[in-house]
Amino acid sequence: MNPTPLSQLPLQFSFLVDPPALSCQEGAYLPRLVSPTPVNGQHITAEVHKEVEIRVKAEATISSIQNIIMSGPTNITKHRTTNEEFVLKWTPTADDLGDHYSVCFAVEAAVGSSIYQSEMRCVVMDVKKEQIKATVTCTESIMKVEIDRSSFFGLNEDHLCLSDPTNTICNLRRHSNNTHLVAIIPLNACGTQIEEDDDYLIFKNEITSVDETPNELITRKHLVEARFYCQYQKRGNVTLGFTAHRKNVTVWEKGFGTFTYQFEFYSDNQFRTMISPNSYPLDYDIGERIYMQLDASDSVNNTEMFVESCRAAPYDNPNYHPTYSIIENGCKVDPTVQIHSSSNKRQFKFSMEAFKFIGLHDQVYISCTVMMCEAGNSNTRCSQGCTNSTWSSGHSNRWKREALIQSGKHFISQGPLRLKRSADARDVSVVNLNLNTAFIAGCLLAAVGMICGALVYKNKMSKVKYQPLPSDNN
Questions:
Q1: 388 with 459, same domain?
Q2: Which residues have CB under 8 Å from 160's CB, separation 6+?
Q3: Residue 42 maps to which CATH number?
Q4: Half-sphere exposure in the Cβ direction for 95 (13 Å, CA)
Q5: Same domain assignment for residues 358 and 253
Q6: Are residue 264 and residue 398 in the same domain, yes or no?
Q7: Containing H/E element for 70?
Q8: Per-residue pLDDT reduced to its tens digit, 428-452
Q9: Does residue 172 carry a pLDDT above 70?
Q10: What stretches of 236-296 show up as alpha helix (H) in DSSP?
């Protein structure tokens, strides 16, 4: 048999053979794929004109994870996050409707010049038409999600919640209407998570269904999950000014009426001169003492405030990792913390020595979790003061039963603080990576397209992994 050659031009190529691994055990030299990496052969549903993502993570004890190699449909992209995950993203077009695309990938690791690869896995993307109608709008401080009720399987806001619904501003009933389920989520509240890659800060949250009887063996409610995110470009030439000072937090709760939290910095331990909001961001030397005061004003008499925890982070988001604990469960954790006395039960004064996070972050935000209680009642969390976490969790049910004697937990923050030498070393071509500069970028979106939003829908009862919903760039 003499087959007709494909070409008369000679084809030359070479192979580069890597040296053998000293151990074939996965997780040593050879990367081991771990959760949330999809299993081999998994089918993932993608919707037309909606971004779908595949998250891949690997670990190795000896080699260092370097890269991911992949094959897939046109325009598929890859990103690496600061959580050491690889994210593959793809948006199918109308021409892809009804088609099935294979996406194959393997993670590479290295020891010196030697390269080692994980097993190769392949998943199948099944392209379907739009199922969920939703819009995500990103601004400099919030994410707004609007989901058409007619496409959300008849679920209402009573059976749905955000990642952390404990704060009253996170209640889905606040903004929803007869036609749309609406969530307006601050970037630093409601369980919003923050993720980074080389180019973007990505803020994520989700709406999930809840069941009033979680211990039952069956349920007749739909189990659904709608994930959404906003991403902000980290670098750019931005000259617009901004105000860093955080506004007061006002909350209404049954039994406590309306109360307002204020978090401010002071110049010395007399707590008489509040630092002007126009002075933010505040500049400190490492080791210099920082004086802070939290105040609560309440429309109901005979109440007191309790500060359960305070933490520091390089961004104004309590879910950014790592965070540095200052106060936990009402107990001092940082060794430099001093709590200053106050005759006002709705006031908390404390101080600590300034520090910076190791690495590129030159700013620090201080955030605290606070609550209000009926003054003098020994059955409240406020009256218990400093406790260990085991004792606290064991008494949570009793506190819930007496909900009218104490409020829910509320998150307040202030900052940023900067090191003086970092504040002086300014680079006009690269913006410092804090939320405020991300917010500045948000103001310029219409011109330069620096923010985008997306929503991912997942039906927990099916094998669907990710289905993004459309976004509305703001």
A1: no
A2: 172, 181, 207, 208, 209, 210
A3: 2.60.40.10
A4: 2
A5: yes
A6: yes
A7: strand 64-71
A8: 333 333 444 333 333 333 333 334 4
A9: yes
A10: none
Q: Which residues pair with 116 in a beta bridge?
A: 109
301's enclosing H/E stretch is none
Query: CB under 8 Å to 99, separation ≥6 — which residues?
Result: 92, 127
Q: What is the pTM of this model?
A: 0.49
Q: Residue 142 sits in a domain of what CATH number?
A: 2.60.40.3210
Considering the domain architecture, whether residues 378 and 412 belong to the same structural domain is answered as yes
List, for residues 178-223, the tens digit of each pLDDT value: 888 888 888 877 888 877 776 777 888 888 776 555 544 444 444 5
Candidates 134, 16, 35, 2; CA nearest to 465 is: 35
Lowest mean pLDDT among 24-28, 114-118, 311-315, 346-350: 311-315
pLDDT band, residue 286 (cuts 50/70/90): confident
User: Count of domains in the chain?
Assistant: 3
Q: Exposed, middle or buried by CB within 10 Å (0-12, 13-18, 19+), for 44?
A: buried
Compute the distance between CA of residue 195 and CA of residue 197 in angstroms, rounded to an integer: 7
CATH code (residue 392): 2.60.40.4100
Looking at 106, 128, 150, the residue that finishes a domain is 128
Quick one: pLDDT at residue 418? Answer: 76
Bridge partner list, 52: 90
Q: Which residues pair with 202 in a beta bridge?
A: 195, 231
Parent domain of 69: 32-128
Give the pairing of strands 282-284 and 114-117.
unpaired
